[in-house]
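Revision sheet: structure tokens.
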Amino acid sequence: MPVPRSLLFVPGDRPDRMAKALNSGADALILDLEDAVAPAAKPAARASIAEFLGGPRNIALFVRVNPLDSGLADDDLTAILPARPDGIVLPKAEGGATLAALDAKLDGDTMILPIATETPAAMFALGSYGGVTDRLLGLTWGAEDLPAAIGAATSRESDGSYTPPYQLARSLTLFGAHAAGVAAIETVYPDFRDLDGLSAYAARGRRDGFVGMMAIHPAQVPVINTAFTPSAQEVAHARAIVALFAANPGAGALSLEGRMVDAPHLKAAHALLARADLAG
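Predicted:
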């Protein structure tokens, strides 16, 4: 499955929003059975999501189930798996053991995207996701549940930037994903009215090595798609690197536009061109 640039959350108890979200421009939807749905509404939300999954789909459809130890996840999976979601978003994941436990409950080609930083224990397991299952699409993170779990007042400074503990959570997710050989997906930007702030945040994410981002509002989707789509200038530069090495087989380092390029630059160029192809 291609890695989505944008993954838009939609409450599982709002089928009207699900239908509208199909035309949001998002690469994928995350139909939410966890935080966005009150306990009493979860049975109806399961039924709504299962029905929606059974309809036509033009983009990838993921479902965020409840945590595996919540007593609710098995009911979630029983309701939705017959309708073949493209992926499961796994909250409160705590490393490879949690991933393996969900993997054992799935069949077919349903992928898994863990939210990997929502408990204190999760922070010590971010290097354990590799080699567990081919279902692992990527890793993403969150800065809301973790401060609540440890009694922190907030995860952010007054200017909106993350405090050091949550900068660490973000960084470890980024490195944990790449260590496992999968995509790193940036977390949500909560202020959906601040599109300029979102643009800057998404640009930093792409700069740092994330390849996609979750969204909480349809207005965020075009900004995120733009941020995670290689520009024409970037594509041209990557093609020039690939062509240069193709013309000089066996070379370890070459000069392009007055700068040295070597094997890491070639690897990055191939990765960028692959992302550009997926983005169309």
